[in-house]
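Field log, afternoon session.

UNIT: design team B
ACTIVITY: writing a sequence onto a fixed backbone
BACKBONE:
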């Protein structure tokens, strides 16, 4: 799929089939994440691949019962890794750049998955400490986004978007 087509067709899907994701597709998604730009090219983030039902259930529990996390064959947990940015960028690096790095990588994953015919939904509503425990992330590695990935079991329509003249400002 061409990039602009992936951008136009990506939807937030909250229902997945049980069909497994081919390992080659998952590796392509992860490789796309690795190409995401990051502050100082420090890649101050970590990605946890969650496949086991018990861990997916724990993520569901810490995300207010969002059951599609359990339903998806794979959940990627994107985490900040502040120590990687601390020395070079100080507080701005640990408080902002690591979050930006992880969210850009997550966005790359969403578009790569769409390009492969897979579906995703960004999950940001969760207890970060409980999610950190669910994926056994060490102290200082903080989950900020979860991305369930799978084949869609629904086809949501496009949602309205703000007009460009409402969000773009020439200065």
């Amino acid at each position: 799929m061409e990039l602009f087509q992936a951008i136009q067709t990506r939807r937030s899907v909250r229902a997945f089939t049980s069909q497994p994701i081919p390992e080659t597709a998952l590796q392509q998604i992860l490789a796309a994440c690795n190409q995401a730009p990051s502050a100082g090219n420090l890649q101050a983030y970590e990605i946890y691949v969650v496949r086991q039902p018990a861990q997916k259930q724990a993520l569901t529990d810490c995300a207010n019962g969002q059951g599609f996390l359990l339903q998806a064959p794979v959940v990627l947990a994107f985490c900040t890794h502040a120590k990687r940015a601390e020395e070079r960028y100080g507080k701005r690096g640990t408080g902002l750049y690591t979050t930006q790095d992880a969210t850009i990588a997550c966005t790359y994953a969403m578009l790569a998955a769409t390009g492969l015919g897979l579906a995703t939904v960004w999950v940001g509503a969760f207890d970060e400490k409980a999610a950190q425990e669910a994926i056994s992330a060490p102290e200082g590695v903080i989950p900020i986004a979860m991305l369930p990935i799978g084949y869609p079991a629904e086809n949501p329509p496009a949602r309205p978007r703000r007009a460009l003249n409402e969000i773009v400002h020439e200065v």
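LOG NOTE: The mean pLDDT is 97.
NEXT ACTIVITY: expression trials, pending approval
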